[in-house]
Design brief:
The protein is an all-alpha fold. It has helices at about 10-30, 35-60, 65-90, 95-115, 125-155, 160-195, 200.
Length: about 200
């Protein structure tokens, strides 16, 4: 394992994920652009694929670095929190949701920084990965739902107003269920992370 911070392929993929975030945000929020949900969805999907690839490549080809251990989960946080912040702007979620996510992420990042001071890099655990996967699935479903409704509003698809309204209600229930399930996993993973790394909090100077 290499502890350096050189930009090998996994680290470049991690940085690409961060670079894609502003483009994702712009296309998601510019509602006057046709198919903006689809463009945002494609960008998010590409970013999510880099998340799957960087870790696999790093482990398979012995390219794991301390930079990657720290930057990979950080890139996930930037991507996911940016999406949730946009969802608030689009009235898809309320502020309580993102406050829970931010509280967890700031807490975990603080523990990581304390661990670094002790000479240890704490990688994401299985609960953290499950949290990230649940968040990304929820975001993808929300974006896909938005695009389907956008197609109806553009006249690409047609249906009675009652049918569209019912579809919108069903999508909203699914979206909210997935989002809040991810929120629960976010909180649970944070509690487990604090418990497993409490030694750093206890010994912090």
């Amino acid at each position: 394992m290499n502890g350096g911070a050189e930009l090998n392929l996994p680290n470049k993929l991690t940085l690409l994920r961060i670079i894609l975030v502003p483009f994702f945000v712009v296309f998601l929020l510019l509602e006057n652009i046709p198919h903006h949900y689809l463009i945002a969805l494609i960008i998010f999907a590409v970013a999510s694929i880099t998340d799957m690839l960087d870790g696999k490549i790093a482990r398979k080809y012995n390219m794991v670095t301390d930079f990657g251990k720290f930057a990979d989960p950080l890139a996930d946080k930037i991507l996911v929190i940016s999406a949730f912040a946009c969802f608030i702007q689009l009235n898809i979620v309320n502020a309580v949701f993102i406050i829970l996510v931010l509280f967890r992420e700031f807490t975990v990042t603080s523990i990581r920084l304390v661990a670094v001071e002790s000479g240890k890099v704490v990688a994401a655990n299985i609960w953290g990965k499950a949290k990230t996967v649940s968040q990304m699935i929820a975001i993808i479903v929300v974006l896909l739902s938005g695009y389907i409704l956008e197609l109806f509003s553009m006249g690409v698809f047609s249906a009675p107003a009652e049918t569209i309204s019912s579809m919108q209600n069903i999508m909203n229930i699914v979206n909210q269920s997935l989002l809040w399930m991810s929120a629960v996993l976010t909180v649970v993973s944070g509690v487990i992370y604090i418990k497993d790394n409490f030694e750093f909090i206890k010994n912090a100077k």
